[in-house]
Specification:
single chain; alpha/beta; eleven-stranded mixed sheet; six-stranded mixed sheet; 3 helices; 32 strands; about 10% helix
Length: about 475
C-alpha cells in the first residue's frame, strides 16, 4: 500500500514538473509574441514615411553613395534617419567632414510634413532649386544644415517662423535677394551663416531682436549700406564676419561686446572702425581694403600681438581732379588725411618733388613744363607697412592767359549743428556733392559773396566729397557727416 502510494506520488511529481516547464515556455512565447506585436504596431507615422519617400525620389535616391535600407527595409533602418515614438526627428544626409552622399535634384514640398523633425542636415551635396517655403512648417526644427549645395532663389521668409531654430547654415550656395526682414523674429537663433552667396541689400534693422545670436557670418556677398545700430541689442556676439561686401560708413561701436573674439570688416567701404585694443578675448581683427585713414588705425596698433590683425592696404584718398590754370598763376593742391604722425611726399609724373613734404603743395608761377599728373603718398610713423595714395590730379597749363583768376581757392567749408556751411565764395561756381564711392548726390549753383547752407540730416552718414567748378578749375573738399 505505501509502495503504491509512493509510486503514485512520484508519478505525480513528474507531472507537476512538466506543468511548470510548459507554463514557463508558454510565458516566454507570450512575451516574445507580445514584443513582436508591439513592434508591429510601433510603425512610423504614415505622413512621415511618405515625406521620406518623396525626399528619396526627388534627390535621385538610387544614385546616392549610401542609400542603405531606403525603401528596402523598415524606416527605422534607413540610413541617416532617426525615429522616436514613431516620428522622424533627425535626417542626416550630409557629411560634416565634406564630400556629401551624392544627393542631386531638389528638396520636395513634402519636407514640411515632418513636423517633429529637429535636425535636417543635407550639406555637401549637389541639391539645386529653391529652398522650399514648406520648411517653415517644421515647428520643432532646431538645426538646419543646407550649406555647400547649389540652392538658388531667395531665402524663404517662412524660415523666420521657426521659433526653435538655433543653427541656420545656408552658406556656399547661389542664393540671391535680401536677408528676410523678419530674421529677428527667430528668438532661439544662435548661429546665422549666410556667407558665400549673392545676397544684396542691407542687414535688416530687426536683427537686433535675435538676442541669443552669438555668431554672425555674412561674408562674401553683395550686401551694402550701414551696419544697423540695433545689432547692439544682441548681448553676446562672439564672431562677426562681414568681409567682402559693400558695407559703408562708420561701424557702430555699440555692437561690440566684451565676449567678442573674431571680427572681419575687410574689403568693404568703411570710413571708420572701432578701437578694440581693450578687448581681452579678441584674436582676429581684419580691416584692410576699406577707406580708412591713419587716425582710426593708430588707436588699434596695440593689437599687433593678437593672432591676426590686418589693416593694409587701404583705398586711395580724395578724388581725382582734372584742372586747368593759366601760365604764371599760383595753384594749391591739398590732401586731407586723418592721423597724428603723418608724413607726406608729393610726386610729379611719378617722380618725387624735392621738399614737397607737407599736406599742401603750392606752386607759384606755373609754367608749361609743370603740366602732368600729381599725387601724394602719405605714410605714418605709428602705422608701419601702410601707404595711402592720393588720387591723381591732372594739371594743364593754358599759356594764353585766358582764364579769369578770380578764384575759388578761398572757399571755406565746415559743419555746424548738422548743417553744411560754405562761405568766402569769391567767384560764381558750381558745387557737386558725391559719396566717396563716387555716387552723385546733388548739384548747386553758388553765387559770389553768398553764404551757402544745407542740412545734412538726410544725407549719408559717411564721408562726402564737395567738388567746386570755376570755369575750368576744380577745387575739392572732403567732409565727414557723422
Amino acid at each position: 500500500m505505501k509502495k503504491s502510494n509512493f509510486g503514485l506520488m512520484l508519478k505525480g511529481n513528474y507531472r507537476f514538473k512538466d506543468i511548470i516547464n510548459y507554463t514557463i515556455m508558454k510565458t516566454k512565447l507570450f512575451i516574445l509574441l507580445s514584443l513582436i506585436t508591439s513592434m508591429s504596431f510601433a510603425q512610423v507615422n504614415e505622413q512621415d514615411s511618405l515625406a521620406l519617400v518623396a525626399l528619396y525620389n526627388s534627390t535621385n535616391g538610387p544614385g546616392w553613395d549610401s542609400p542603405n535600407g531606403w525603401l528596402s527595409e523598415s524606416v527605422e533602418y534607413w540610413f541617416g534617419v532617426t525615429i522616436e515614438n514613431g516620428r522622424v526627428v533627425e535626417i542626416r544626409l550630409g557629411d560634416p567632414l565634406g564630400g556629401g552622399f551624392g544627393l542631386t535634384g531638389y528638396i520636395p514640398a513634402q519636407i514640411g510634413d515632418l513636423t517633429h523633425l529637429r535636425v535636417l542636415n543635407m550639406q555637401d551635396n549637389n541639391i539645386t532649386g529653391n529652398i522650399p517655403s514648406e520648411i517653415g512648417s517644421l515647428e520643432s526644427l532646431e538645426e538646419l544644415y543646407l550649406l555647400n549645395n547649389d540652392f538658388e532663389g531667395n531665402i524663404p521668409i517662412e524660415i523666420c517662423n521657426l521659433d526653435n531654430l538655433g543653427h541656420l547654415y545656408l552658406q556656399n550656395n547661389n542664393l540671391i535677394g535680401s536677408i528676410p526682414a523678419q530674421i529677428g523674429d527667430m528668438s532661439s537663433l544662435r548661429v546665422l551663416c549666410l556667407s558665400n552667396n549673392q545676397l544684396s541689400g542691407s542687414i535688416p534693422e530687426g536683427i537686433g531682436n535675435a538676442v541669443n545670436l552669438d555668431q554672425l557670418f555674412l561674408q562674401n556677398n553683395q550686401l551694402s549700406g550701414g551696419i544697423p545700430e540695433s545689432l547692439g541689442e544682441v548681448p553676446s556676439l562672439k564672431l562677426i564676419y562681414l568681409d567682402n561686401n559693400q558695407f559703408s560708413g562708420t561701424f557702430p561701436e555699440n555692437i561690440l561686446k566684451p565676449l567678442l573674439r573674431e571680427i572681419t570688416l575687410n574689403d568693404n567701404y568703411f570710413i571708420s572702425v572701432p578701437n578694440l585694443s581693450s578687448y581681452s578675448l579678441l584674436s582676429i581683427y581684419k580691416i584692410e581694403n576699406n577707406q580708412l585713414e591713419f587716425d582710426c588705425i593708430e588707436s588699434n596698433m596695440s593689437l599687433d600681438t593678437i593672432d591676426e590683425f590686418t589693416y593694409s592696404p587701404q583705398d586711395s584718398v580724395n578724388i581725382a581732379i582734372d584742372t586747368t590754370v593759366s601760365k604764371n598763376s599760383t595753384i594749391q593742391f591739398n590732401t586731407s588725411v586723418g592721423g597724428t604722425a603723418n608724413q607726406y611726399q608729393w610726386y610729379h609724373n611719378q617722380i618725387p618733388i624735392s621738399g614737397a613734404i607737407d599736406s599742401v603743395l603750392i606752386m607759384n608761377s606755373v609754367q608749361a613744363e609743370d603740366e602732368g599728373l600729381y599725387t601724394c603718398v602719405i605714410t605714418n610713423s605709428l602705422v608701419p607697412d601702410l601707404a595711402l595714395w592720393r588720387r591723381n590730379i591732372h594739371l594743364q597749363v593754358d599759356t594764353s592767359n585766358a582764364i579769369n583768376e578770380n578764384g575759388i581757392n578761398t572757399i571755406s567749408v565746415y559743419i555746424k549743428n548738422k548743417q553744411l556751411i560754405i562761405d568766402n565764395i569769391n567767384a560764381d561756381c558750381r558745387l557737386s556733392i558725391y559719396t566717396v564711392q563716387g555716387n552723385h548726390l546733388a548739384n548747386y549753383q553758388l553765387k559770389r559773396g553768398e553764404i551757402f547752407r544745407k542740412s545734412l540730416s538726410n544725407d549719408p552718414k559717411s564721408a562726402l566729397l564737395l567738388v567746386f567748378y570755376d570755369k575750368k578749375r576744380t577745387l575739392t573738399r572732403k567732409i565727414i557727416n557723422r
